[in-house]
Here is the input.
Amino acid sequence: MRGFSSTAHGGFIAAHDDVGMRSALPTDPALPAMADLLDAEAAAAVVAAALDGAGDVESVRPTQVRHERGRRIVVRYAVEGRWVAGWPRVQTVVAEHGRTPPPPGTALVGDGTVQVAVWRYPFDPHLPGLAAAAHPGPARAVLADLGIEAGPVEVRPRAYRASRRAVLQVRSTGPGAADLCYLKVVRPHTLGRLVAAHAAVAAAAPAPAVLGTADRDGVAVLEVRHGEPLRTRLLGSGAAPDPVALVDLGDPADRRLAVGQQPGQHAGVRGDVRAAGGRQPGGVGGGAP
Here is the structure.
């Protein structure tokens, strides 16, 4: 951030790839650093705080944005460089602005009035189980604690929503290598709801079973289920599933997970989808199974 110095410090609008323009999000008077965080050149100073002199930064590209208007913004960056520590060439760095006080264990960039917390993946302060789960040795220990014995493994990141959740694929690396499980890492206080969600969806459709949890760290171990991801189908050229059927599929889960939510929170969306389906020949899904 322009003119900032860094010191060590122990309503969803968008979340997508290739975010790089200041116009990608509206301005927010409550978040004065927002424009700089969305500008790759200005964000370079913020990124440097998390990398702590580990090498030379060559490029910074915003790849994911979460904006809660009037509250906070979280920006994830792909940072390419040459690193003394022998890290992979592209590093993931996250900046969070608006949370008071800033999360502990992060680098803090600011000018005394405006502050931004910065961290490098997998050291997400909101996901205390991620740093261990993302590495083979600790991941094996997590599995062993749950009674799942595994030999040498590799861990591949599959999804990361900074400060919210991450999904890791655990594979054996010996003879007959195969997927062993998936680790879903969330904020510890949301783990119970995640487990309930899996159970609710499983009552209506095939869903990965939860094999075990590490409650303190917010880690759920999920079984491997083979099939085509919905995202792949939606982005591919094949026939898309019927949106009405997908919405109906969520009804049992909605009923079981409605505690603490506003009555009818999703009713408007469900009604809109069904109405749209009735207006088009063969439904919105174009007759897809």
Remarks:
- The chain has a mean pLDDT of 78.
- The first strand starts at residue 5 and ends at 9.
- Residues 267-279 form the longest helix (13 residues).
